[in-house]
Batch of 4 targets.
Target 1
Amino acid sequence: MLSTLRFMFFTIVALGLIFCAVVMTILNTYKPIYRTYINDRFVGYFLNEQQFDEVYNDLVAEKQSIDQNVKVYLDSEPTFEKCYIRDSLLSEQNIYTNLRAEIKTEYTIYNVAVNGENKMVFSTEDDANKYAENLKSEVDTLDTQVNMEKVSTLGEITSFDRADAILEDLVARNKPVELPEPEPEPEPSYYIPPTTYSGPIVPDLTGERCWPTVSRAVNCDYWGYYGHNGVDLKASIGTDVYAYAGGTVTFAGWDSSGYGNCVKINHGNNVVTIYGHCSQLYVYAGQQVTAGQLIAASGNTGNTTGPHLHFEVRVNNIAINPWVYLNQI
Ligand SMILES: [Zn+2]
């Protein structure tokens, strides 16, 4: 009887030990774990939510090491489903790789656009502004702008060396060419008279007027040298000479005082015009002429240093500045 009880006792102990061993084995092999999903996609087995957060934060730090301003996020919150799996499955999985594939990123980049075309990309607004400002200060004709853009993957960021080269190239292509200072206009070989007259009040003439020859160029003005009391107009030998205004020819011939062949016309009110140094005379004393009538051909007779028309105006036989009348044309 005793031996039977002892046998039963040991049997129960043995069975109890076997049971415990089986339970221990099962517990060691199958662990409670969380099957984790994002957007219904399986991303791995996590021991708990805390482990998920640790892995997630590691991955955020990994992205931020590339760009500290990157926005990292998941499409949706993870869901955890408790289950039991074998140890071997845990060691086979790579939760970093799985979760990395689910992580979304949003990078903020700053494009430097020149005339609407992106030329440089920076990860900070300051860098982009710096290059945009540099370019604007060098070439203000270019439309240079900094545009912010959100992108999910980070493309190539322009290195400063590359940006410097691009800037240099843009400046070289677009900087306005600085033209050398234009040569100053050469001084005219003839004198251009003032258009204001300051002198005695002279009689008005009525009727038409005519410039006394073809050219308006002045070789030597009234009092261009001491005692020069007419205006020398540019004219070669044989150039037409015209009556300034209508009147009566009072002299047409040789003048020995220096005018050479000359014509004098009285326009009334003792206003007389004189045309000196002529080569030919086409009118005679006493003849009535009209303004613009051909009266002579210019030349270099008399006291001259070269061909020209000496035009002189006398009022009461006193030479006055001819511009008071010439300016009326
Ligand atoms: Zn003269």
Note: Confidence is low (pLDDT under 50) at residues 188-192.
Target 2
Amino acid sequence: MRETLVLNAGFEPLSTVSLRRAVVLVMQDKAVVEQSHPGLRVRAARVDLPVPQVIRLRRYVRVPFRQRAAWSRRGVLVRDRHRCAYCGRRATTVDHVVPRSRGGGDTWLNTVAACAEDNHRKADRTPAQAGMRLLTQPFEPTPADALVLALGLRDGEALPEWLALPTSA
Ligand SMILES: [Zn+2]
């Protein structure tokens, strides 16, 4: 996957994001293209953009770059793309792998997105006690994930697959 460098409004490098994410940021007027691939454009029905190599955010954002992204329920849902860690269906709740009542904390590594049904079924137990298996292991968001969280991008704003494929001009 082609990566695009993201600069903060003050030109400090923040992170890299996927080309698709970069195009979304430009289309949403959250960023401007500072440097693009010569001769490569992203083309679609209502889009004709140079393929960005470097974009710069229009507004200065405070990003927890090189630091841990602050934990939040919304952040867990975005990190897990609103997919339940137990069944893969749409998740609207956040489950504590080790329940809070057993000392489990509000941390990235102890929380996963879960559908309401599985969250209710697991209740106040660990996955082992509930006889449930995690399909994916929770992880700390990368700086790129942290940037996406800080920009408040919502799930479902990704462009279609085909738009991510640049064509020669
Ligand atoms: Zn589920």
Note: The mean pLDDT is 81.
Target 3
Amino acid sequence: MQGVARNFFILAIVYSLCGMAIGLHMSITHDHGQMPTHAHTMVAGWLMSAVFAFFYHLVPAARASRLAPIHFWLTTVSGILLLVGLFFLLGGNEAVEPVVAIGSLGFYAGMLMFAFIAIPAIRKPAGSSAGLYPDGTPVASTLKNMPAR
Ligand code: HEM
């Protein structure tokens, strides 16, 4: 994995460790008050970041986009604002609500940006970089070498 794909996968691992720690803390203390923070850290953090990582790994045209690093940083900063803000909000600190709101809007903007990067990249015609394996081998060349049935 390289570039944005690798960054997203490292981010995913960090989210999984933080989210599971919250899950374990809830189980041990029998206080499930942070359930939304745990669920969002695991799904919006671990699972979404891992999906982004594998998408950028498998589609070089998306990874090469100049928007891809902006997508990574927007998603990272807004996701941290959203999840850390949610943790304190559910802990009873209502003053952090604007932080959660800004994080949520930024996270949505990140997903919108991903749509602008991903959809054109998967619609590129065969022969463009979207038709390459991550090591640069054209997909068509390996299909040509398959034994005839
Ligand atoms: C160490 C591992 C984990 C522990 C100890 C743990 C613990 C918990 C606990 C105690 C709850 C609250 C249940 C409730 O109050 O009804 C919960 C909910 C949840 N967990 Fe985890 N969890 C773990 C891993 C995961 C993973 C890997 C995912 C997803 C990738 C995940 C996603 C969720 C979701 C979506 C909910 C909310 C379910 C609902 O809406 O009722 N958790 N977890």
Note: Residues 3-124 form one domain.
Target 4
Amino acid sequence: MIVEDAVRLVGRTLHPRWLQRPTILPDELAHSYALRVLVLNEADSLESLIAAVSADGVVDPKVPKAQFLAWVADVDVSEFLRFHTLAPFQQAFTCGATPHSHGENRESHLRYEALRVKVPSFRICDACKQEDLAYWGFPIIRVSHHIPGVEWCEKHAQPLISTGFDTRHISRIQRFSWTAAPSDSTEWPGPQNEVVERYAAISTALMARCESMPVRQASGIIAARAKQQGLRRALTGKRKILSDLVLETAPRDWIARLLPSFLSQKTRPGVFAASLDGVMKPATICRPEAYAVALAALYSDADEALSDLTNAQEAPESLKVRAKRSRPSGSKPAGAHTATEVAEAYFRSNFSNAAMAKLLGGSCTWIRSLLVRLNLPPASLIGKARNRAALMSFKAGANIDSACTSAGASVTDLVDLLRFDLDLLVPLIRRG
Ligand SMILES: [Zn+2]
């Protein structure tokens, strides 16, 4: 068990008095938190801070950095990995037949993988930075800005600015300087490509999952969809293959940044490129980016791809609000809304994404990704009064048929609605 191990290894109740332990903020990347911890403790590096704390005898000098940071932040390692690293995306698909929780205590993962960021340099959104400054009093580096292939801030619909500060080594985190980070927000027309847009929706939803998915499950769905579309799955043959479809529909420069090895494998049309076409083979494991881009190219609707991918339903996920300032001065930064607040806003805006965007302050794309994360039903389903009435009588104990008959709703609609997690929404509907 993670919790017991964390207690055993680092003795979480025994923080030395001198150690300054700032609160970790929603959506804050581990690296950003590490930087704040170092600054507050006047330490040069995480290594030297670990050495100083271990000299007090409360942590093992060899504690993995991710585990040390979680201990400083006073959160479980699993929670730390889920909400403050890219682990949910990087570990979205795993080999085993059974899913495992992100952050399950696997020593080698904690030591070598947990803090990896696959984007070469830290990225920031200028508008988020200004909001953070106004709300928390300082800017943070965000997890949601470092999903490979999602090159804009979903909240503000602005391109992310690459800071040029290397993400490769957490040990070098002290080199990140906010004053040296470029500040520029250019007018931006949006991703302008449907595959890129669907990719963003899919990878953001993967980030919100609490456990990995067996790679077999993903490749099965992708292979079936490819077959439906008449694409070839064999290594050789005359028909078009998945990677041809991706190259035809997604921007080449974006693909080159997303899957650098792909274009060198794809020497001409029809060639089987393992880094991408491998996603159709259940025995192969490719990078998570490849599965997400395959789904984005094969489906015309990201929600449909996601619901095919995740047959099993997930619990609604709180967006984890931690200690806030008592009197916030600016608009809430992305990630600072609780699941209930989002559901409430959804209901109050009469299920309109645009109205909700206005209410919470952010773009419609951002709202959409919030709704996906919380697994709330789309407006088209919930908005109909008949569906709502049928849902209420079903929840009150009626069977599906009679709930639909009495409300004049269709059984398909109600069954669709029940696939979503309604625990957040139903009490609000009832109140309304
Ligand atoms: Zn932003």
Note: Residues 125, 127-128, 153, 155-156 surround zinc ion (CB under 6 Å).
